[in-house]
Design brief:
- The protein is an alpha+beta fold and 74 residues long.
- It has one domain.
- Helix content is 18%, strand content 43%.
- A two-stranded antiparallel ribbon has the order 1-4. A two-stranded antiparallel sheet has the order 2-3. Strands 5-6 form a two-stranded antiparallel ribbon.
- The longest helix has 13 residues.
- The chain starts with 6 loop residues before the first helix and ends in a 5-residue tail after the last strand.
């Protein structure tokens, strides 16, 4: 997330950056907290926000800026 950005704004921006597709009205479906422990001590904590969206605009990128090809393989 960027400073001043809502979770919803972040998912729209991140999804577009990675796929080229702009989500329209994504809906928050779940929030998960992941605790990282070492030797019984909490060393980190992550939050994961899960969205669902059935409307979008744009075309998928052929290659993700980070992961490479987005094409489905058979």
């Amino acid at each position: 997330m960027e400073s001043g950005e809502t979770i919803r704004e972040a998912v729209i921006r991140e999804f577009k950056e990675e796929t080229g597709i702009t989500l329209i009205d994504p809906v928050l479906k779940g929030v998960f907290t992941i605790l990282i422990e070492e030797d019984g001590q909490r060393v980190d904590e992550w939050m994961m926000f899960t969205f669902v969206c059935d409307q979008y605009k744009g075309e998928a990128l052929k290659h993700s800026p980070r992961a490479g090809s987005l094409a489905a393989s058979s």
